[in-house]
Design brief:
The protein has one helix spanning 2-20, and strands at 27-32, 37-42, 47-53, 65-70, 76-81, 86-91, 96-101, 106-111, 117-122, 132-137, 142-148, 154-159, 165-170, 175-180, 186-190, 198-203, 209-214, 219-224, 232-238, 247-248, 254-259, 264-269, 274-279, 287-292, 298-303, 319-326, 331-340, 342-346. It has 358 residues and is mainly beta. It has a four-stranded antiparallel beta sheet with strand order 3-2-1-28, with no helix packed on it. The protein is globular.
Length: 358
Amino acid sequence: MRRFCLLFFLACIIGTTAAAGPSSAPKLYVCNQGEATVSIIDMASQSVETTVDLTERGFSENAKPHHVVAEPDGSHWYVTLIGANTILKFNRENEIVGRLSSFEVPGLLAIDTASDRLYAGRSMSAVDPPKSIGVIDRSTMTLSEEIDTFFPRPHPLSVTDSGAHAFVASLATNQLMGIDTAAGETALTRLGGTTQTLVQFAMTPDGSTLIGGGQRTGRLLLFDATEAPALSVTDTLKVGREPWHPVISGDGTTAYVPNKHSHSISVVDLTNAGVTTTIEGNGLAQPHGTALSPDGRYLFVSNNNRDGTYTPTGDTPEAGTVTVIDTRANEITTVIEVGTYPTGIGTVGGQRATGSDR
């Protein structure tokens, strides 16, 4: 009887501990560039599950975590540290299991889920970074190759779901490069007119269309990628001021474009190449990164809040937010306060929603 009671008591403790542990729901990783932390949000409960403090792992308060991507199965996630010239690999228990040091001013990441490749660009904050992007073997976190772009300030990155092609563009000039990842061949595309300053790309699941927002022009450019690595512009849409990191629905029909200076989200019908609505409201304060829940029902948007557009309710007066939007109604449902200066965000599978529940 005593043995039974002891076993029952231990089972209760174990059960309680398991219940209090991390949820198995999909995670959203949020880089808080202003305080060297990463907020991890449970996408099901839409709440912060835990915060990874990089200063407790040997990095300075100026580490500047900027962008994050994760494996499709959630086993590992990767984050760039602008201030430490480092790219870190974490496991699902949020332990550092690999790192690439001495990669100068890493910026955006693009994960090739069809291979072991992880692409890394250069930070927008760098004045004269190397004219190249890195190709990293994720399993060993070693730099396998640096691809010369020949143009200055390579920043936006994307890779097709098949892994056949990758794309990068310049912040300083109207130049884009497509890369045939198997053959190693590249194709350069030049745009006329005003310098767009393309910030970030998103690509349809079938690899046929690439989109990118021009920081200077407030335009969303749609590119035909069916002849990749060559690209050609098919449409140019007026969105808000300073379009930042877009995301595309799992069915490839809808894009969500955060407009940093307009504090808004443009919803774009990619089939008919038009803006269908603009989302505004509480919590949208210099929107930066976007990610969709696995079913496509909710859009998560990180907000820098560097100009005080949003007034935090918690203990951190300069806290940024992650705004949650119901994609059926295109309405804000939740505002989650995170750390200071949240920037790039990511979830499993390189931020691709697996379906559409709009």
